[in-house]
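Quick note —
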Amino acid sequence: METIEKIEAKDFFKFTLGSLELIVISDGEFDLDPIQPLFAPDRDPDEIIEFLEGRDHLPHKLVFEGNVLLVKNGEHTVLIDAGSGQTSGPTVGKIVKHLSAAGIEKEDITEIVLSHAHHDHIGGIMDENGAFTFPNAKIFIAKAENDFWLSEKPDFSKGSDNQMAEFQSAFAKGISSLRNRNFISSRTTMNYLAF
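Predicted structure written out below.
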């Protein structure tokens, strides 16, 4: 496999694993500033600063690189997650552009497997006009994840019930308006997509 030093294109990186062609596609980057209360809301701010500075990071903000994995094998061209779309600002939502630079068009995508329904993983399902971005793709999400986000009041007792949780929940419910034959909530997703 190629090493990081050999990466020439910042927008994508191609490699193989056995018979699979894999492409890491950049969706762009976004800043989280300030860091709290979204992350580590119960930690002392000085502890966060010390942690970040000790790892050569800026003490007041986090920079997130959004990447999506594309897996290609035979007739399947599968995205693992769909990126942010327009949900996190102008520096992200570049998945379609970067897919095209890698030689893959949005119409080529046959399946999308969603790891979870946070906006930076599902936002790319819709384009800037609210239409389905990948017209030929079936979308798969775990039933438990689907049921959690689409419930009347998601149970955040094991996480953070805050403003971001409310945004995530509302966004996931908005995505559900795209449900049709392409959206499948299943416990057997990986069996169906097994290569």
